[in-house]
Amino acid sequence: MNSRLVAFIVLLTQTLLANTVSLTDPVVISTRISNAFPIEMNSLDAYLLTANVTTSAANATITTVAFTIDGVEYSATNPIVSQYDYWWTPAGFGAHSISIVASDSNGNSSNYSATVEVANPLGDRTIQTFENALIDWSSQGSQWAYGTFTMPQSVGIYENILANFSVSCPNISGGCDDWDRLCWVQIQNPAGEWVELIRYITPYGIGCNHSIDVTDFESVLQGTIPFRVYIDTWGTGGWNINLNLEFVQGSPAYKYSSVDEIWEGYYNFGDLSNLQPVPVKTVTIPQNTAAMNFRLITTGHGWGSNNSGNAAEFYYAIHKLKINDITNASLNQTLWRFCDPNPDNCTGQLGNWQYNRAGWCPGAISTPYQYDLSSYIPLGNFQFSYIFKETYRDYCNASNPNCVSGVNCADCNDGYNPYYRVGGYMIYKGSQPIPTLATNNPTKEDYSIRVFPNATNGVFHVSLNKPWEAIVVTLHNISGEALKNYHFKNTAELNAFDFNVSGLSNGVYFIKVYNSTFSYSDKILVQH
Known about the structure:
The chain is mainly beta. The chain has helices at about 5-25, 135-140, 490-495, and strands at about 25-30, 40, 45-55, 60-70, 70-75, 75-80, 85-90, 95-105, 110-120, 125-130, 135, 145-150, 155, 160-170, 180-190, 195-200, 210-215, 225-230, 240-250, 255-270, 280-285, 290-300, 315-325, 330-335, 365, 370, 380-385, 420-430, 450, 460-465, 470-475, 480-490, 500, 505-515, 520-525. The strands form eight sheets. Strands 5-4-8-9-2-13 form a six-stranded mixed beta sheet, with no helix packed on it. Strand 31 and strand 32 (about 480-490) form a beta hairpin. Mean pLDDT is about 90; it is low at about 5-25.
């Protein structure tokens, strides 16, 4: 055999073996560090290097993670689950080699290497993320769009970050969805948690353009990060999604910031069995915090004759934030939004876009409520409560023992109860690095759901294999109208429930099971 051919076969075999080892390496390193952009700063300041490290080896744990910078090794800290950090102060401007090496207790290891530039500010930047990304149930079978995009890396050089978000009509059957659908844009932080960047309600049947200030999330919008968009659209059309981010250079009041999720999820409103469902959280203020603000987005959903007061979508309410035992008017939330004229100038809509709503309007980004909590920094930590309007009761509800279907309520068990989607984030700011706070928020979405029997002659069950909390199940007709809405405190309650749809006509329906960290949708056939 030709010696060159033999040499080539040996080299090819070695390469394939090497690639096989690499692909099956149980230690996985993911990092947002990128060489696509320099790390920009006015002076040589500390910059947070992060890595998410896991191992799939049986009974193994991660034992060491180290950053090697220009040949010098530094041990990483491990503030959150699989997140590893190192605050690096560059020795000078110019190119620097950075590598990450991680090992587990079974002796497996992995590494990542990059060369990054440290530079003075280079001016404003506009980063395109989603570009005509299609969300459509009929043709795509999904209510999600995913992407990974690279943001600028910097310390204290951007004064504002603006998100420009638009929806347009796709070239599919049905075009734009005819209905106002709940939508959100999320980004993933270094720990793998999803952070809500934008809350939005789609317009009735037309496309529109929007902008919102997202400077609060500057610490998360660094390097290479995953994005995702969700729209609660079904069988009546879909949407094309576009999103770009404008990084505007300037002199921010503080070089550093940090984002801490306080609440994210769905909570029943007026449920007599649990009138205040939002959990009390302990806020621990990190070192070097010089200013802090709370960013709160609440939108009310559910309405009709089976919801007392037409709540929560069309119900005016004043809610309260409470710090320890302190309440005052400056911490109140007047949850109401005037929709005519449309606050985002989304004109030409169909439907009943003009009616005022609880925290949102069709064809508009939900503007966050902002609370300056800097005066509470000396507390060090405090108990933080979100108190829904205390006098409201949903009397047309299975939790009301005095509710009688057909007497004082059309259907006490219809399940479509008023609820709020709540997203609350504490933003810490300072002139020195702000350490990462520990968190108990879930980071993974490896779950399985089974809906059975399917088809059903009237009763079906849902089986979920993960211990989630605050679970919502909705049943929709082919046009996406929510026919039933159920709320469960936990997985055990969901798995034990009998879903009775014997009153529905034969046909195809959609079922959706979700909470703040996962969403599952499927078809179910009702066949009596």
